Amino acid sequence: MKIKKVLVSQPKPENGKSPFFDLAEKYDLQVDFRPFIHVEGIPSKEFRKSRINILDHTAIIFKSRKAIDHFFRICEELRVNVPDSMKYFCTSEATAFYLQKYIVYRKRKIFYGNGNFNDLLEIIKKHKKEKFLVPLSDSHKEEIPRKLDRNKIKYTKAVFYRTVCSDLSDLSDVNYDMLVFYSPSGIKSLLENFPEFTQNSTHIAAFGNKTIKAVKDAGLRIDLKAPTSKAPSMTMAIEQYLNNGK
């Protein structure tokens, strides 16, 4: 079966640039983007049940803009006034600059890494007297808590937002030759939206070991795995797949 229509289970790039667009032009493909999952903030009532007191902490670790948005949302809903003395530790400079949406940036103590948590961890280790709060998603990876534990950092991890399945009912009559997944949550959303889904000739591409496992656990056929030593990106893997006559 010749592949002509591809659905990528992620949001369409806002800047209009993506290797998928180059792939579409080169191989005359129709490539559509549609997020299968989205993020929702947990209600403040639910956060209260965790019995976490934000003001018991002297520093906060932010890994993403979503974490920043939902932290300050909860603070506003609970009428928590974050003191000027609060310290902020961000994984990247871009994430740190995003704090300007909520605080007077130049008047706060803000630290950031180069995009890698290991780099930020070296900075955090110099501030071991702080008590850190770590806003996370309900489906967070254990990488950050594990590394903080290993380095004996005092912290509290708190769920401020969750990943939920998007409504894909408008896709019920749309057929694609290939579905591209980047997370187990995407597979979960597919099956929740279409419990009678039958794969037949639809090709499934999965990125990462956890996503690959989720496809197999769902009883679906996996046709394309990435990354590989020869194809570190999904688009490179798809291009190789196309060139092999699939």
Write the layout of secondary structure elements.
Blueprint: E1 5-8, H1 19-27, E2 30-33, E3 37-41, H2 44-49, E4 59-62, H3 65-77, E5 87-90, H4 93-98, E6 109-112, H5 117-124, E7 132-137, H6 143-150, E8 155-165, E9 178-181, H7 184-193, E10 203-207, H8 209-217, E11 224-226, H9 234-243
Helix pairs in contact: 7-8
- State the strand order across the main sheet: 3-8-7-4-5-6
Structural class: alpha/beta
CATH class of the largest domain: Alpha Beta
**Count of DSSP helices?**
9
Regions with little confidence, pLDDT below 50 for 5+ residues: none
Question: What is the gyration radius calculated from CA atoms?
Answer: 21 Å
> How much helix, percentage-wise, in residues?
25-40%
CATH topology of the largest domain: Rossmann fold
Distance between the termini: 7 Å
Main beta sheet: strand number and arrangement? 6 strands, mixed
Estimated share of beta-strand residues: 15-25%
Coarse morphology = elongated
Q: Give the H and E element order.
A: EHEEHEHEHEHEHEEHEHEH
- By DSSP, the count of extended strands is 11
